[in-house]
Design a protein that fits this description.
With about 350 residues, the protein is α+β, with helices and mostly antiparallel strands. The protein has a single domain, classed as Chorismate synthase AroC (Chorismate synthase, AroC fold). About 30% of the residues lie in helices and about 20% in strands. Strands 1-2-6-3 form a 4-stranded antiparallel sheet, with helices on one face. Helix 1 runs antiparallel to helix 9, helix 6 crosses helix 9 and helix 8 runs antiparallel to helix 9. The longest helix has 23 residues. The two termini are about 30 Å apart. Bound molecules: ligand EPS. Ligand EPS binds next to helix 6.
Length: about 350
């Protein structure tokens, strides 16, 4: 499967096109819209979220709530567009450190960095959450469930302290990042492959995770800690009791680039949003003089939103692997292929 997104944060709409979905998949609009609602929530979000109320409009690929094998196109309107339409918005000439502003403007030879930030904005993740929601609907048929858990905000593990920490950052005109854990339950043995670099499941998931705005690191299972341990305390010993099983899951469900039947566990590290109300030092691209970076509006933290986005991109990657492994033009063909494979695995 493949998908593309299009659209700018204050443009008319965001659009996503998914190709390669099997036919006869039930497109549950309530579920998709609820995922979008989850992405919009969370303590520390900025003013934009009180303007938007994200809902999908399916433009193609579905009849009578079922996919027909054709590309699925999704549109999410930006309600804020009405407030920007036809307005003479000022040029952005003071790049924000940490954002795409400066590098994007130089790369594309744009004199107004608004042309960069409009697309670089994490608003684009609304489109990706809608795509991920469709992936989750597909995965449901194979008993695969993607969940997220926030482990840290602003370096703090105690969630009772998060609201106060977020308030403090807000008062200081600052922002906070965090750590998010994704768990994928029900993944069968055998997604991904050891035989080629671009088929390794851990690599594919990492690519998806790192493609999410503001994510700076990803680890799988014991992850970075495993570099500091001896092999005997890292690797998950193998047992047999009618079926193969493990007592530990330090591998995070992936060995040699292949899912091993244990839950897939990964953690993503998100940096603080680079749009600061108390801006950092920058340089004006016209005058070349030292200035403070642009600030219009932003979130103090979007870690809760990022958790939903990460679920979405991981769901996509797993769904893509499921469609490769149990390939079929109709969902029923895929389920038959899946059941046949699971029978073989059981007998191994
Ligand atoms: C976002 C919409 C944006 C920001 C945020 C994510 O709205 P606006 O720019 O109109 O305030 O709240 O964007 C960023 C964090 C960013 O770095 O660009 C959204 O819908 O998630």
């Amino acid at each position: 499967m493949r998908y593309l997104t299009s659209g700018e944060t204050h443009g008319e709409a965001l659009v996503a096109i998914i190709e390669g979905l099997p036919s006869n998949l039930f497109i549950d609009l309530d579920f998709i819209n609820n995922e979008l609602k989850r992405r919009q929530s969370g303590y520390g979000r900025g003013g934009r979220m009180s303007i938007e109320s994200d809902v999908v409009h399916i433009l193609g690929g579905v009849r009578n709530n079922l996919t027909i094998g054709a590309p699925l196109s999704i549109l999410i309107r930006n309600l804020d567009y009405e407030n920007w339409k036809g307005k003479d918005v000022p040029r952005v000439t003071r790049p924000r450190p940490g954002h795409a502003d400066l590098s994007g403007a130089i790369k594309y030879d744009l004199k107004d960095m608004r042309d960069v930030l409009e697309r670089a904005s994490a608003r684009e993740t609304a489109a990706r959450v809608s795509v991920g929601a469709v992936a989750k609907l597909l995965l449901k048929n194979f008993g695969i469930v993607v969940k997220s858990d926030i482990l840290e905000i602003g370096g703090e593990r105690d969630r009772e302290k998060w609201p106060a920490l977020i308030d403090e950052a807000k008062n200081e005109g600052d922002t906070l990042g965090g750590v998010i854990e994704i768990t994928i339950d029900g993944v069968p043995i055998g997604l991904g492959s050891h035989v080629q670099w671009d088929r390794k499941l851990d690599a594919l998931l990492s690519y998806s995770v790192m493609s999410v705005q503001a994510i700076k690191g990803v680890e799988i299972g014991m992850g970075f800690m495993s570099a500091r341990q001896k092999g005997s305390s890292v690797h998950d010993e193998i047992f047999y009791d009618g079926h193969f099983y493990r007592k530990t899951n330090n591998a995070g469900g992936i060995e040699g680039g292949i899912s091993n039947g244990m839950p897939i566990v990964l953690r993503a590290y998100m940096k603080p949003i680079p749009t600061l109300r108390k801006p950092l030092t920058s340089v004006d691209i016209d005058s070349k003089e030292e200035v403070k970076a642009t600030y219009e509006r932003s979130d103090v933290t979007a870690v809760e939103a990022a958790a939903v986005v990460l679920e979405a991109v991981c769901a996509w990657t797993i769904a893509d692997e499921v469609t490769k492994k149990f390939s079929g033009d109709s969902l029923h063909d895929m389920i038959e292929n899946f059941n046949m494979y699971m029978k073989r695995v059981e007998k191994y």
